[in-house]
Design goal:
- This protein folds into 2 domains: about 50 residues; about 240 residues, Protein of unknown function DUF4465 (Jelly Rolls, Sandwich), CATH 2.60.120.1350.
- With about 280 residues, it is α+β, with helices and mostly antiparallel strands.
- Helix 1 runs antiparallel to helix 3.
Length: about 280
């Protein structure tokens, strides 16, 4: 009987250990301080690094206050005008689930060679993490450009393109492993139209993107993100034409591996069996 009690105690302890080690944490950008509705572009030429939780974000301002690329924190609630003059506004007018603050990425692009990809930008973690998910949204500028039309897109946006015109625009995300190498990529398709006129447009609000499979169970020390586009409306002889923005919120992670559901099932299954044996013997 004491042996069974000991087994029950051991399994219960293991369950607690797994739960503690797999504590879920969230980077929600509410700890970032800035003046105004969004992080201002510094007047000096150079680069700035800002942080939220254990994550670091780079903001490049190579020409001073007149231009920026990289990451900004934002609390912009007014989605209009949907243009480059209001490019730090999430399309929904708030962070995920109505939160106050979020982050915005703008990706610059090489000016020669007709590139189909933007430059890449990283999120750096102060320690290895096991990424779970990130909430993502278009900014209002990109959303209206795709849905209402803009440069190289007709009035009516992607749906108004002629039959047979194929387009594709996506955010590509890779994990940065502890040794500096990259994981396989995961594409978040923002807009596409195939030759059969099947159309896909990313959500008008926020969507939670699952990244649990990005690193195949390995810890990552950062994320690498860039945009890519192909064909006609998102790419022409001069290069990528879409306004390359994405908003993110609620980076969910753990500093320890998250056990598979089958692991928990096995532990609690054994606890149930041991408890059943214990009760049966206790009746005798």
């Amino acid at each position: 009987m004491k042996k069974i009690k000991s087994i029950l105690t051991t399994f219960a302890f293991l369950g607690c250990v797994f739960s503690l080690n797999a504590e879920i944490k969230v980077i929600d950008f509410e700890d970032v301080s800035f003046s105004g509705s969004y992080m201002p572009t510094p007047s000096s030429m150079g680069s700035t690094v800002w942080t939220s939780g254990i994550a670091s974000f780079g903001l490049d301002h190579p020409y001073g206050a007149s231009y920026w690329e990289g990451w900004k924190a934002s609390a912009q609630t007014n989605r209009t005008p949907a243009s480059y003059t209001n490019d730090c506004a999430a399309n929904s007018g708030s962070g995920a689930n109505g939160s106050a603050q979020y982050a915005v990425l703008y990706a610059g692009m090489p000016w020669s060679g007709a590139p189909t990809e933007t430059y890449s930008y990283s999120i750096d973690f102060s320690g290895g993490v096991y990424l779970q998910s990130i909430d993502m949204s278009m900014n209002s500028y990109l959303y209206d450009w795709i849905n209402l039309g803009g440069m190289y897109l007709p009035t009516g946006g992607i749906t108004a393109l002629a039959d047979g015109v194929e387009v594709y625009f996506a955010l590509r995300v890779r994990g940065i492993l502890e040794d500096g190498s990259y994981t396989d990529y995961q594409d978040i398709v923002l807009a596409s139209k195939d030759s059969d006129n099947n159309i896909y447009v990313f959500t008008s609000g926020w969507e939670t993107i699952d990244f649990t499979a990005l690193a195949n169970g390995e810890a990552i020390k950062g994320l690498d993100m860039y945009f890519q586009g192909e064909q006609d409306a998102f790419w022409n002889s001069g290069g990528l034409t879409a306004p390359a923005y994405i908003c993110i919120d609620n980076i969910v992670y753990s500093t320890n591996p998250i056990p598979e559901p089958s692991t928990y099932a096995a532990i609690f299954g054994l606890v149930a069996i041991a408890f059943a044996i214990y009760r049966k013997r206790a009746r005798k």
